[in-house]
Design brief:
Blueprint lengths: L1 H14 L1 H7 L7 E3 L15 H5 L6 E3 L7 E2 L4 E3 L22 H6 L4 E3 L5 E3 L2 E4 L15 E5 L1 H7 L4 E3 L7 E3 L4 E3 L15 H8 L6 E3 L5 E3 L5 E3 L3 E5 L5 E5 L6 E7 L3 E8 L16 E10 L6 E7 L4 E4 L2 E4 L5 E5 L5 E5 L7 H4 L2 E7 L4 E6 L4 E7 L12 H4 L3 E4 L4 E4 L5 E7 L9 E5 L18 E2 L5
Amino acid sequence: MKMMLAVCAILGLVMGPVLIQACRDSTTIPQCHISSDCSDSLPANIAPFGDCCDTTGRNSFRLNALGGCISCESRGCHVEDFNQTNDTCSGTPEIPDINSFEECCDNNGTTFLRDDGICMSCSGTCYLDAGTGSGGCGSFQVTITGISFNDCLLNSSNNSFSFTGSSSSCTPCNSFGCHTDGDCEGAPEIVTANLSSCCEASGQSNMGSFRGENGNCFQLADGPTIGEDPHFFLPLTNGDNLCFSIQGQPDFMFSLINDKFIQLNALFVLPAKDDESETISNVTTFLGKLGLSLQCPLTGKITNIRVSAQDHSVSVAEVVAVVKDQPVTVKISKYSNVSIAVDANVQSDLRKDESSWLNIISDFGFELQVRFYKKHLNMFLRNTDILTKKAHGLLGQFLTSSVEIDAKNNLMRLNSRRPVPVTNAQAWPFLNIPRNCWYGANTDNQATGMIDGVYTDYIVETLLP
């Protein structure tokens, strides 16, 4: 108590006699309450926060009678409502079993209430001058805390940003945009804020990278691709690439990804009769429609999205957008909010390109890009962090599994399955990727031996479960 009075007296020299008078009052004594909202009239003088909440029957705490009430049940990892500021830790934590700030933020939390009653925000730090740290983030410079990468960028493109306040995770704000050199360091070679335009400028699905508005760097060549009739292109962790074709059957739907939080199905179709670039006699199938069911791991909210090449549309619930003259972006936040935006800042010449773009981006680890042609789709996966080890489907079984290539004997093995023969050759020209692929040596165009079972095992009845 003597120390508290001494501190208050020092503050009083600066702030005046009103504060000294307040410090002499009982309002400075920490209060431990039985109620959950500090409403009981006879609080105990128990401090700190942890001692109060760990006392049987004590449910809330405030630093003084004039301060805000902190509920004991609030300790843990919070995912605040979308319209709330992310500097509060009120209510029951959405992920109560997480007991560290770092683990909370790594699991898409927004705030963490510590045992000492301090609410910590997962938002980052904006560094306003060059500093001496890595990439511009140093410890001796002016900073703004609790803001996003995009807010830091809007302040000045020369700033730098750290999600954790540590220089080890520093991102220069001027790296936002399209890079053609394969990374996101330094100023972008093509100044644009649109992922689709970046892909167009650097190749159909590849050859470069893009720094998005959340600070993440998209490696445009690294994501799995399904295109043309359909061809599957999967970059492997060792730098190799795996390629195979699955023609399936026209007018049948197939499971591409089947996992705990995601279902992605596709309708295989014949080339359209009015598509001059294809002939109806060609029995090769294309992707005609996609059905994506995406569940947020934090809230359990399910978002169903339909994509159709027939009318160049994307639909979420009752909202339908036409993906034609400008790229369309569907954003799904961890707060269960969904938004559809048309990027009017980017112009597309469909008479020349005859294609358009759709971006589906979630806050919780799944990003998909779709390119529309006249009557069919190409699909590019940008982020699959949400997938579990049990992921399956024509594509999903390869995304979290161990794929081994025996280059000496020209063999491929997926997990513990029997090895299958493969051959190494230049990747399909339509990918615009100047690199080689390991192709299945079978000739049936159904990836027999490479996939688990046979292609007919993956037929589903509906686009959405």
